[in-house]
Amino acid sequence: MYLLNVADATLRLKNFFYISILLVLVSCTAPKRTTTVISRPSTAPVDGSPTFLTNITIRQGTGDRLVESHKPLLIENTIHPDDKGGDIEKCNNLQFKYALLMNQPVESTWNEKLLLFLDEWYGIPYRYGGSNKQGIDCSAFACQLLSAVYGVSLPRRSADQFASVEKLTIKKLQQGDLVFFNTTGRLSHVGIYLGNDKFIHASTSSGVMISDLKEVYFSRRFAGSGRAK
Questions:
Q1: Among 33, 78, 98, 175, fewest CB within 10 Å belongs to which?
Q2: Is 224 strand, coil or helix?
Q3: Is 211:203 a contact under the CB 8 Å cutoff?
Q4: Is the pLDDT of residue 13 over 60?
Q5: Annotated catalytic residue within 80, 91, 143, 201
């Protein structure tokens, strides 16, 4: 019995020894956990914007446009030479607004009276035969704009307006020229060219608005253009 106990103890010692060696080997080959330390930038942005890796910051924007610096706004200010500056500041804001609407550079030169007129009438509803801010049609709007901004009188009907203007090709159009369309089987619609293929008009669907000459609807119905004499 004594010999059996000695043999059993010896076997247990051997097993313990082998298990210990196995545990040591496993601990040596097991992957070590690593800790990644992300250092923050030493200085935060002056404007308080959130800062992420490698000093990348998110800055406030408008929609999908980033707010960027622009060149000084230029205004063709021949209307109010004695103005104290109030209207000029307003025109700067309006120029930015309508540059975005027309997808053209903000520093583009605008006629001050035209900007003020556009903002005063933009969105006025359409009314056939109308000629005021309760409702206005396309030819009356053209009359109002040309008279208020350029001091030019036009006939009331779009067909008569077309007959009275100096005809121009699209490539020669300038801000303030007239564009005409055949929307009913005859010349029946008129707008005022603003630049960059855009024109403003009193549309039957949305009232006074800006549209593009390259839109399929208008390009197919374009009837001619001209400059008021």
A1: 33
A2: strand
A3: yes
A4: no
A5: 201
* Structure tokens, 166: 């100096």
- In which region does residue 35 sit, left (phi positive, over 0), alpha (psi from -120 to 50) or beta (all else)? beta
Distance CA 107, CA 104 (A): 9
Residue 138 bears catalytic tag: yes
Residues 6+ apart with CB under 8 A from 126: 135, 136, 137, 138, 202, 203, 204, 205, 206, 207, 208
CB 222 within 8 A of CB 214: no
CATH 3.90.1720.10 positions along the chain are 124-229
CATH class of segment(s) 124-229: alpha beta
Q: If you compute the radius of gyration of the chain from its CA atoms, what whole number of angstroms results?
A: 37
CA atoms of 196 and 182, how far apart (whole Å): 22
pTM for the model stands at 0.61
Judged by average pLDDT, the poorest of 95-109, 110-124, 212-226 is: 95-109
CA–CA dist 100, 118 (Å, integer): 14
For the residues of 86-99, what is the DSSP string, one character each? HHHHHHHHHHHHHH
Q: Who wins on pLDDT, 5 or 136?
A: 136
H or E element that contains 189: strand 187-195
CA gap 199, 211 in Å, rounded:
6
Concatenating the DSSP letter of every residue in 38-69 gives -PPPSS--TT---B-GGG-B---EETTEE---
Q: Which of the following is catalytic: 28, 70, 138, 143? A: 138
Average pLDDT, stretch 160-183?
96
